[in-house]
Predict the 3D structure of the following.
Amino acid sequence: MLVKNYSNVARIYSHLMRSIDYKMWATYILKLSRIIKKKNISVLELACGSGEVAGYLRKKFIDYTLCDLSLQMLLSFDHQFANKINCDITALPFKQKFDFVFSTFDSVNYLLTKAAFIKMLNSVESCLEQNGIFTFDVSLVENSLRNLKHLNRKGEFRGIKYQQISSFNRVKQIHQNKFVITCEDGSAVTENHRQRVFSFEDYFDMISKTKFYVYGCYEAFSFSNASPKCERAQFVLKKRN
């Protein structure tokens, strides 16, 4: 049975992501936030997932709001956050304006069309302070090509069996991760996670169609300029005056 993304993967997400260095991610995000040069900034994390990055950052930022499209993911953790919002990042509901908006783990790659990506940018722009920053990372073609093999895997976690089948269609720019999950009662469900791997140049083109400009584009976890050959690029956007 095909089910909604993360409705069951949420139960094994911590196991699937067990090799991720969340502290390193959080440290990098904190460094990026300092570009603003302002104390006590207001922060919005998009597509926060299981809240692992927030677990490290929550003591660094007093005004911190989390959001995710998956209610199951939001319910999977509790870091004493009052502001956990279930919403679509292409239609953010916030009237408040934030100083710093960010997403991690190539979450924006889930936006499958250029129209959806631009809609997301416009949605963020509407709730970002004039001197604020929006930063996000993207998975590029090299990441799909180099890491495809180890994403085909199977295992068991807390009585739940799973198989992950990963494929990349370079022509259509689609990276798909299919999860076949067998629950404790023996019932089987399938989740199809599809990500769009736009070209490096596509991102600059889409951003140019909005009120943002690219303040910086770095090779992930660094402040070195990114290139099309990077596995992952970190964009830092500011509003045009």
